[in-house]
Specification:
disordered C terminus, Rossmann fold, 4-stranded antiparallel sheet, binds adenosine-5'-triphosphate, 250 residues, 36% helix, nucleotide-binding, single chain, alpha/beta, 6-stranded mixed sheet
Length: 250
């Protein structure tokens, strides 16, 4: 793995005077897939928004560095230009716009080919979808695929994927896994927020968030085992839904 180009140093965030992120440290290299695990409300999406530079999510302390340059106070549009992109947990609505046009907006080069390749990468037929305008007949799962296709076409330096699997059926999870691997092969770093074991397994590294802090980092296997041993029993006691993750051969 090459030297990290994206480094998060000691980042803290408060909302309504409440700490949401506590001294987060993270680094990513080109082509690295890093999984962020954690129960609901542990701060995963807040970290994604902070790294993307979303309004209201500027860290009070610490630094975010891209190629050694401090981008902690750089606006979201500039960060996008620098090659950081975020696939939201709830896909962006682009009603009225043909799907192909939406994907083309951020495509890096040779746009028509990119749109076709991106749609094929998420198993949507270009013939059927490229000219179809987004409207209420587009399902949640289809929207999720289009959002991922748009990110794929961009070939960002860092793709932050916030639960790309939500609303996606079990059979289609292999399409998502393949797409993420393709992105990494094209040298994008991927920060992947997910609860799906199939996606955790293919990552290079993982971190576990709890109450706004990263409490464990290691291999995906070690991290999910840490979760199972330390977090799940507490969730069971609290009567919450256990977050189910089981890696093969573990
Ligand atoms: N804009 C905000 N104002 C106040 N509190 C917020 C805001 N955004 C997030 N929080 C709080 O920060 C905490 C972390 O939320 P966040 O959505 O980042 O967690 P998460 O790990 O992504 O959860 P999930 O898995 O349910 O998506 C929660 O307690 C949430 O209520």
């Amino acid at each position: 793995m090459t030297q990290p180009f994206f480094v998060v140093e000691d980042v803290c965030l408060k909302k309504d005077n409440r700490p949401i992120l506590n001294h987060i440290n993270l680094s990513l290299s080109e082509g690295q897939i890093h999984v962020l695990l954690g129960v609901n409300g542990s701060g995963k999406s807040s970290l994604a928004y902070t790294l993307m530079g979303c309004e209201g999510y500027t860290s009070e302390s610490g630094r975010i560095l891209l190629d050694g340059k401090d981008i902690t106070h750089t606006r979201i549009t500039e960060r996008a230009r620098m090659g950081i992109s975020l696939a939201w947990q709830e896909p962006v609505r682009f009603e009225g716009l043909p799907i192909g046009k939406y994907i083309e907006l951020g495509a890096s080069e040779s746009k028509r080919e990119k749109v076709i390749a991106a749609l094929e990468a998420v198993s949507l037929s270009p013939k059927k979808y490229a000219y179809r305008a987004a409207d209420q007949t587009l399902s949640g799962g289809e929207r999720k695929r289009v959002e991922l296709a748009a990110i794929y076409a961009m070939q960002p330096r860092l793709a932050i994927l916030d639960e790309p699997d939500s609303g996606i059926d079990a059979l289609s999870i292999t399409d998502i896994a393949r797409l993420i691997c393709e992105m990494a092969k094209h040298n994008s770093a991927v920060l992947l927020i997910t609860h799906r074991p199939e996606l955790v397994e293919m990552a290079d590294s993982a971190s576990l968030m709890c109450f706004g802090s990263i409490i464990f980092s290691g291999s995906p296997r070690e991290t999910s085992q840490y979760y199972q041993n330390r977090c799940e029993p507490h969730l069971n006691i609290l009567g919450s839904q256990p977050w189910q993750i089981s890696l093969n051969n573990s």
